[in-house]
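The instructor's notes for this session suggest beginning with a concrete chain rather than abstract definitions. Hand out the sequence below and ask the class to guess, before any prediction is shown, which regions might be ordered.
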Amino acid sequence: MNEFKHGTRFWIGNVTLALALISLFYMGPLSERLGIWAMVLWMMLAAVGMYFLMTDKSGEPGQPD
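After discussion, reveal the predicted structure:
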């Protein structure tokens, strides 16, 4: 069984996407305080998280079963 470690970019991307998910749970109160900027904040967190996940080159490519 081959195990490989994920790089720093992978973990930064996952943490950023977790923050985006948490911001979705609190979108009501956030939008009351920030207005449209709450949605902009969510989009930026999701975009940055996906960027870090997609640029992570440390993992091995998936192998067919």
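Then share the key points. The two ends are 13 Å apart (CA to CA). The first helix runs from residue 8 to 25.
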